[in-house]
Amino acid sequence: MIQHSFLLAAIFYLLSFCGAIAGKKHISGILLITGLLANGYSIAIRYWLTFPMLPLYQGPFFLPFFMGLFSLKALGNAHHSESNILLLISLMAWAALFFPNDHYLPFIQFRTIFSHLFFLFGVIARAFFILSGLQAYQCIRKKEMNETALQQLREVRQSVIWGYLFWTISVFCGAIWSYLGWGSPVVWEDPAITTAMATWLYYSLYLHLHLISFVNAKNRPFFAVIGACWVIAFNCLPDMGKFMLPNIFMVKNYI
Amino acid sequence: MNKLKDIWSLLGNTNLMFGLIVLMILDLTVGYFMLKSHPHLFYPINDMGFLKWSATYGKNNLYETAWLYLLIFFLAILFVNTFICTTQRVTILFRNKSFSGHKFRFIIKLSPHIMHYALLIMLLGYLVSYLSSETCLSNILLPEKSIRIPDSLYEIHLNSLHIDYYQGERLQYMQDRAIDVQADLTIQNKEKIITGRLGFNKPVWFFPYSIHLKDFAPKSKSGMNRRTYINVIIKKDPGAKYYFSGMILFTFGLLLYSLHWLMERNKITKDSLLT
């Protein structure tokens, strides 16, 4: 049921993207919402089947859901080219389906609110960072700085601030969890600790860019795009596994 | 005097901060690949403390560990840079009379600086922790038996151990496996006796130590009948209170900053976005 509902979500995301390309905005919106419902159902079951432990390393299944959810309002705005966002949500969903990292047994140390906040806030922050990159990309494509471009600049900064807030709380919750469970705020065996710190530093820098003399406002969107690429490469892809055909595609299951 | 002023303003320069953070990101990227390929070299930092680790693993594997030394160097400069830059701005903010009678506005304007000072407290906490914390690993406690904490007069006694085994159907992989562990401990020296219940993510604190549950047996109801025991980590970390205070303060500043952004976002003009 988990895989079926997620496959359904991925199909709806793809159809929503096709609808956006065809210029059918309303149909695209309805398909996106349907995809979100299927995705939400899939991740709710995923959580139900592991709670009170944590579905760690299953972030890729959660990411398209949060990206879709946070971009719903933005997609309603007339100035947005929604196809970019929908394409990325769709790509993320299909990548999660074919590159799962499922084979991981939860352990009792997961039983704390801090581990859940670490995981969920981390995924939410990634969704905001990637969205900020997409919004910034749309800003870059604009040739003149009109009211629409300014609104997009505001949205980029807003997404970065939300992402930074959730990322920071996620990192702190991870440190508290690590201290309670292992007696140290940093467990030096997971390389993700370095990339989490680098992401935090990068977006701290982004929030200071207005103080840097050689970076002007027109360059700032480039930083958001680079940040989104970094987040995908170092915070999302490591959560994925090797290529694997999902069970639902195996013919033997249906014979 | 002028030279000192020049050094002060150079160290507090925001462009220096930009360069430092870029270098730290590059350094951490190298660290990511080093940690991924040699995790066994870095894991002992928690157990040994940084100084002992540095004299053994760090020194003997310099090619793999150099990024960590560089990171500490960059962090030290960032610490000085943040302190100077923030102090300069806070001084200006306190001299500004336009906030008199607008306490909330003043606190909101102070929020980024609260975050910066919180970061400094956190970094200090980590420094104290890595330089002076002590970890005692693999302390096996059997029911109704005691062990002594090394180099102290404290004794830990395991009074009883309660293990709950999962019996439901929802978590199939947990069937008959332990889902919760609680150990009742008594810690005593000549002067005082403390009792506490230890569990996963539920350490027992008694100044200056904390006890963390690392492992236990038996883990499942079925299978071989293993002897009942718990394995605990005994930690003495004087930096913990500092880095956790820093985290709380940083979160407070960050929430204020976000609130400020939410309140002001519709008032943001073209000029403020483009400068």
Tell me about the largest β-sheet of chain A: none
User: What's the rounded overall pLDDT mean of chain B?
Assistant: 88
The ordered H/E elements of chain B are HHHHHHHEEEEEEEEHH
The largest sheet of chain B, given as strand count, sense and whether it forms a barrel, is:
4 strands, antiparallel
**Helical residue percent of chain A?**
55-70%
Estimated structural class of chain A:
mainly alpha
Q: Average pLDDT value of chain A? A: 88
Structure annotation, total helices of chain A: 8
End-to-end separation of chain A: 18 Å
Q: Given the C-alpha coordinates, what overall shape of chain A results?
A: flat
Inertia-based shape of chain B: globular
Q: What is the CA-atom radius of gyration of chain A, in angstroms?
A: 19 Å
What structural category characterises the helix and strand content of chain B?
alpha+beta
Order of strands across the widest beta sheet of chain B?
A: 1-8-7-6
Number of strands of chain A: 0
Give the low-confidence spans of chain A: none
How much β-strand is present in the residues of chain B? 15-25%
